[in-house]
Prior knowledge:
TIM Barrel; alpha/beta
Amino acid sequence: MEYRILGRTGVKVSSLCLGTDNFADPTPEKESRRILDMALDAGINLVDTGDIYADGEGEKIIGRAMKANGKRHQTLLATKVDHGRRRPGYSLDDPSLYGVNDFGHSRLHLIRACENSLKRLQTDYIDLYQLHRPSPDIPWEEQLGTLTDLVQQGKVRYIGCSTHPAWSVMEAIMTSELKGYARFVCEQPPYNLLDRRIENELVPLCQKHGVGLIAWAPMAMGVLAGRYTSATDYPENSRAALRGGFYADRVTQRGIEVGIEFTKIAEGLGLTPAQLAILWVKDQPGITAPLIGPRKVEQLIDLIPIKDMKLDDETRAACDALVPEGSVVADFHNTANWMKMQVAEGAMS
């Protein structure tokens, strides 16, 4: 396994990181724990989750698994605090259960959320605590000041953010520098061959200022793996079918067309489309690691060999010909209300 430095820290993270959004939704706990243990045995040392994954059950599964396998201190646990759609454990279907302070990254919400995540993960500290989506109405002084307190208390080791615009990451960096607050060590954006927009501003920013990039959705939700053949008729048990909404909106006809051509490139290399999709992200400039989120053990077995692969220039050029640098054919920023650019159906940038 190749290990890469995370941002400006001295911490080394594996070039493949385990994403756990499927834990308990839909992957059963027994299978989830097998996936986690196998990933750790393969040398993956960063495990990423979030307080809203399966209403907090994802964190609970990881907590029970880490307690059983005894590998907590060999593992970097990363979790996220959502900007406040709801407290974990509460139903999205009943807005009356939301509290007025369950929204945004206020000091009150951050401290409460951190304490709850620690309990669910059954750990004394979180290695990487990330702000999940921006809270632009809350001053950085409050957000970063609170995160700094959590670091100083030993509850959090490092801090980061997820799906923030480049200008917001820069604001946070400058606030940390000016005020002496803890500094973001990484940003976690969506990134795959179908949505390359972070290459325009975020990647150069992070390269210049020493911020790691942990990419989510590297397989474009399965579109690049050949899972979808229609932008309206989804395979049974696919994420678009199971979750609908903004997940389904990411499946575009042009994205599917690119996926078909991408599959041909993968087959010519003797790889599965899923392997090539992950490899492409892993070896892009500025990327620390892609998040792989297998739903089944068999999928993890297929992805682990990527740790020993390198993307060659000819394959990189062939992928660039499908979707040019910095362009987009499927919107994976569609949960980010700051991203105003819309993807025209059928368009090829």
